[in-house]
Amino acid sequence: MFDSRLRFFFIAEVVALIGVIGDFLTTYYALGTGLYYEQHPQYSPLNAFTFWTSVNMLLTLLEPTKKWQALRLAVIGLSWWGMIHNLLVLAGVPI
Question: pTM for this structure?
Answer without folding.
Answer: 0.74
